[in-house]
Amino acid sequence: MVLAHAHADHRGAAPGAGAPVYCHPDEVVDAQSERGEHYFDYDRIKLPPTRWLMPRLLRACDGGPVEIAGTLEEGDEVAGFRVVHLPGHAPGLIG
Question: Which pTM value belongs to this model?
Answer without folding.
Answer: 0.84
